[in-house]
Amino acid sequence: MDSKHKYSPESLMMSYGYSSELSEGAIKCPIFQTSTFEFRSAEQGKAFFEVAYGLREKEEKEELGLIYSRINNPDLEILENRLSLWDEAEDCAVFESGMSAISTAFMEFLKPGDVLLFSNPVYGGTDHFIKHILDKFGIEALGFYPNQTKEEITQMIAESGKADKIAMVYVETPANPTNDIIDIEMCSQIADDLSTNERKVYLAVDNTYMGPLWQHPLKHGADLVLYSATKYIGGHSDVIAGACLGSNEVIARMKTMRTFLGNMAGPWTGWLLMRSLETLKVRMDKQLENAKAVASFLKSHPMISKVYYLGFAEGEDKQIYDKQCEAPGAMVSFDIKGGEEEAFQFINALKLVKLAVSLGSTESLIQHPGTMTHAGVSEEDKAKLNITPSLIRLSVGVEKTEDLIHDLNSALETVLKRF
Ligand SMILES: *Cc1c(COP(=O)(O)O)cnc(C)c1O
Question: Which residues partner with 334 through β-bridges?
Fold first, then answer.
C-alpha cells in the first residue's frame, strides 16, 4: 500500500494487519481454531517464552511469537490491531465480554485499601461489580453525578478524607439510559490532581454508547477506553465480547491480567468481530441518520413529553458535547405521556422495532429501563436519574427511515386512541 497516504480506518478494516502469504493466499483471515502453536525448534520455543515471561527485552522488531491461545491467537491479534485504529490507540486487548474487560481493568488497577471514584449512572453490571464485588476485596467506591462541577467533586473527595487512596477514576459517558454527559477532560484533570510522582491515578472511560466512531476518550485525557464489543462493534446482536484500548504500558498490564484470568475472547469471536468491523462505518452512519430522524419525529409528537438525545443537548451539556463528541449517536430515550401502562401499550404495539435489551445493533431495539435494564436501581436513584415509569429507551438500527417512523407512529396512534 501507498505508505505516504494516511488511510482512514474504514478503508483498512478489510486488510490491516493480515498478510495472505501466511495463509495460502486466502483473501480473508481464516479462523485459527487452535489451542496451541507448533514451534519450529526448541530454540524458537525458548525465545518465545523469554519474551512472554519478560525474562529479556524484545529485540528490535521482534514480536511475541504464537504460543497458546489463552496468550495470543492471530484472530485476536489482527482484530486488536484493527480496533486500535479507530481510537488511535497504541494497543488493544479483546475480552470475552464487555464485563470481563471492565472487571479486568478493576482487578489490574485497584488493590485492597484503594478507592474508586466513579460517575453515576453506570451500566448495571458495572454498578453491581463496583458495589458488591469490589467491596469484597476491600475496595471502596465514591460516586459522583453528571451535573456536579469539578469544584463540587473535589470538595466531596476532600470531605471523604480518602483523596490519597483513590487509584482510579471510572466514567461512563454518555450514560445509560438518559444520555447524561460527563466532561472527560475535567475527569482527567481530577485524576491528574490526585496523582503523585509515586502513584498515577488512571482514568478509564466506558465508551460503549458512542462506539469507536463518535467519541475518542484517549484524545481527552483518558488512559483506558473500554467497550462492550457486543454493541456497535459486533453490531449484529450475535456475539458477546469486550475490548480495552490505551498505551502499550496499560495494555501490557491488561493482557497479563487477561492471561491469568483466562478471559480472552476465542478465535471464532475474533473472526466475527473482524467481519463486523468491515461494515462498522456504514452501519453507524446509517444508524446516526435514522436516529436524527427518529428523535425529531418523537420530539414533535403530542404523546411524547420529553426526548433525551444528544442532538438536542443545551447549555453546559452542549458545551461538553461540542468538545468531546463527534456525533449525537443512535440512542434515543423518551418519556411517553402517562406512565408504565402507556409505555407498555406502546412497546407492545410495535411491529418492526423489537423488544429486547442491548443496543448498537443493525435492528432497532426498544426497552423499558425502569422495569428492565435499571430495575435494580433504588427508587431514590431512579428519581435522581430521571428513570421514570414513562421512560422508554430506543437503540436505532439500520432499517429504512420511513419504516421506522411508520412503526413508531402507528404504535403511538394505538396509545393515543386509548388515552
Ligand atoms: C452492554 C454494556 C456493558 C457490558 O457488556 P457485555 O458485553 O454485555 O458484558 C458495559 N457497559 C455498557 C455501557 C454496556 O452497554
Answer: 307, 392
Q: Is 230 in the pocket of ligand 1 (CB under 6 A)?
A: yes
Indicate whether residue 232 lines ligand 1 (CB < 6 A): no
209 φ/ψ sector (left φ>0, alpha ψ -120 to 50, else beta): alpha
What is the predicted pLDDT for the residue at 1?
A: 65
Instruction: Say how far apart CA 297 and CA 405 lie, in whole Å.
Output: 7
Q: What is the pLDDT of residue 164?
A: 96
Query: Percent of the chain beyond pLDDT 70?
Result: 99
Residues 6+ apart with CB under 8 A from 30: 23
E-only strand ranges, 315-402: 331-336, 354-355, 365-367, 391-395
> Given this model, what pLDDT does residue 57 score?
86
For ligand 1, atom 11, name the residue with the nearest CA.
123
pTM over 0.70: yes
Going from the N-terminus, what domains does the chain have, and what CATH number goes with each? 9-34+69-277 (3.40.640.10), 280-418 (3.90.1150.10)
- What is the CA(172)–ligand 1 centre distance, in A? 11
